[in-house]
Amino acid sequence: MSAPGPQVLDFDAGAEAERIAGWMRATARDLKRRGLVVAMSGGIDSSVCAALAVRAVGAERVFGLLLPERDSSGASTALGRQLAAHLGIAHALHDIAPALEALGCYRERDDAIGQVFPGYGEGWKSKIVLHGGLEGGINHFRLVVRSPDGEQHEARLPPEAYRRIVAATNHKQRLRKTLEYFHADRLQYAVVGTPNRLEYDQGFFVKNGDGSADLKPIAHLYKTQVYAMARHLGLPAEICSTTPTTDTYSLPQGQDEFYFALPYAQMDLALWAFEHRRPAAELARALGIDEERARAIYRDIEAKRRAAAYLHAPPARLQA
Fold first, then answer.
1. How far apart are CA 22 and CA 27, in angstroms?
2. Are residues 84 and 236 in contact, defined by beta-carbon separation less than 8 angstroms?
3. Could you give the C-alpha distances from 212 to 132, 186, 219, in angstroms and in order?
4. CB–CB of 11/38 below 8 Å?
5. Cβ(270)–Cβ(261) under 8 Å?
6. How many other C-beta atoms can be found within 10 angstroms of the C-beta atom of residue 146?
7. Average pLDDT rounded to a whole number, residues 109-132
8. Domain segments of the chain: what residues?
9. How far, rounded to the nearest angstrom, does the alpha carbon of residue 316 sit from its chain's CA centroid?
10. Which tens digit of pLDDT belongs to each residue from 245-270?
11. What is the pTM for the complete model shown?
């Protein structure tokens, strides 16, 4: 078997696109659905899912949703519109900020941040970043805030405040899914979930939020392969070159900064090596890191899989 390296993720994108499209078409038929709904963030994963949906059932049977809110990047909506035009699909834009305001999303988040930075308020921006695990310690989160005058502050985030911030921001994913299923019910369509293999395996999704769907067509593809698929499908260059972000917090935030141990291309190789039981020394050589850090990455993958078990679990039922 090949040592970890970019070549292990090579695949026939054309053949795989046809296989996925055929599966999506058959799955929609089995579910007695007439078409497919895709929420399009402007990111690579949802864009590829939308393009595959068009290949599966035709543009006239795909409905796209753009669901921005107060903290969303304006570029996300612009890319979503560009994708809808490129694919020739019907779409709708729903600004979910008023509903999130009514649910208390922003208030609860800001109150929790205020426990750590009492001066936090109107005009401030924030994000959460992950620290510790790869340096030999225990994973923990730090809160980063920026004042209106541009001064940045950072502090360790207490567990109670962290849970409250995450619970509040999870409203965003769950409300989006509510709208996806509204349109799915209205049109008798199925809802397409957009996680890639990294996100699905490592639990980078919200339970009953973006983790909820009727079919997940790219959950077996590494992020590197999703980018390759986007290029094969001829998606706009601006989408093919997007950098993965959470697009959840008001400060810019990469996925590797918030959740994953490494940037996606390296994380793909780490997950591949872990799944194929390759020694940490091989991963270390492939990534140009020392062996102890490679072992720490493996431990981080295992820890996230344990945490993801709850997210993947179906509702518990008491047997008769």
1. 9
2. no
3. 30, 18, 13
4. no
5. yes
6. 17
7. 92
8. 6-101+169-251, 106-164
9. 26
10. 778 888 987 766 667 768 889 999 99
11. 0.93
